[in-house]
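To make this tangible, we now present a fold written out as tokens:
***
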Amino acid sequence: MTGAGGLLGGLFAVTGVAPSRDGVAYDPARMSRSVRYAATMVAAIAVAFIISACGTSHIQIPKSDPTYSADLAAAHLFNQRCGGCHTLSYAGTHGSGQNPRTYEAINGPNFNVRCERPEMRVLYAIENGGFSGAYMPQNVVVGKQAQEVAAFVARYAGRQAVVQPGVKPCIKKPIGSLSALTASTSGS
């Protein structure tokens, strides 16, 4: 086996792959350009999907809640319209600053630990841009949806607050009712 022909013939005998004309071995397992492109796109989409799921929370309304369907709808609205600035685990949001030294001016209250009752107080904040009127937009939710979000926030806010001696826990404070308020004002 002398010369290039002998060397190429020896490669065929060892590898079982026939040599090409230009001396480079042909690899039948090599992917075509379109197959490589498709495989790369599938891998990129899979990685993006996995990364997008990291750090996300989901709405966690207990199914035993008697107003589950209304609260679920309100939780979705809260998540979409309020979650950028407010934290409420039942709505799957983390908008409030976690460290007081790194708060930004637009960080809203953390409703996991802040009690917001009665419903009328929450509805006032929704309609008027919070209590300071500085950053929260007015009427971020309106009409019946605003009432549903107010009821949801009043029902679930403050449930993770630290219990302090001599202070009534949020869960034991009356929620109030907007329906009683609207019935009394419409009858006058």
Q: What stands out?
A: The beta strands are 87-88, 93-94. The radius of gyration is 31 Å. The domain at 68-179 is CATH 1.10.760.10 (Cytochrome Bc1 Complex; Chain D, domain 2).
